[in-house]
Design brief:
- The protein has 90 residues and is mainly alpha-helical.
- The protein has one domain.
- The protein is built from three helices and no strands.
- The protein is flat and about 45 Å long.
- It starts with 7 loop residues before the first helix and ends with a helix.
- Keywords: Membrane, Transmembrane, Transmembrane helix.
Length: 90
C-alpha cells in the first residue's frame, strides 16, 4: 500500500510507534527491561503491526508491512527534523 493510499492517522501512528520503538530499544540497551519499557515496547510493536495486518492481503505482506511502516516512520521523523532545521536557517 502506497503512502498516498494510507490515511494520515495511520502515517502518524507509524511515526509515533517507530519513535517509541527506537527510544525504548535505546533505554533497554542502557537500563535493561522493566515493566514500563515492556509496556511501551508492546504498544509500539502493536502500533506498527495492527495497521499492517489490516491493510495487507496475505501473510508475506503482513510481515513486510510492519517493516515498511517502521521505515516510513523513520523517514517521517528525519523529514520533520530536516524541515525544522531548514526553516531555522532558510
Amino acid at each position: 500500500m502506497s503512502k498516498e493510499d494510507k490515511p494520515i492517522q495511520v502515517v502518524i501512528l507509524g511515526t509515533i510507534s517507530s519513535l517509541a520503538l527506537i527510544c525504548v530499544a535505546t533505554y533497554i540497551a542502557i537500563a535493561g527491561f522493566n515493566i514500563a519499557s515492556t509496556v511501551i515496547l508492546v504498544s509500539a510493536l502493536s502500533g506498527l503491526a495492527v495497521p499492517a495486518v489490516v491493510y495487507a492481503d496475505g501473510a508475506i505482506e503482513c510481515v513486510t508491512g510492519v517493516f515498511e511502516m517502521f521505515i516510513e516512520g523513520l523517514v517521517a521523523i528525519f523529514e520533520g527534523i530536516v524541515e525544522i532545521v531548514g526553516s531555522i536557517f532558510g
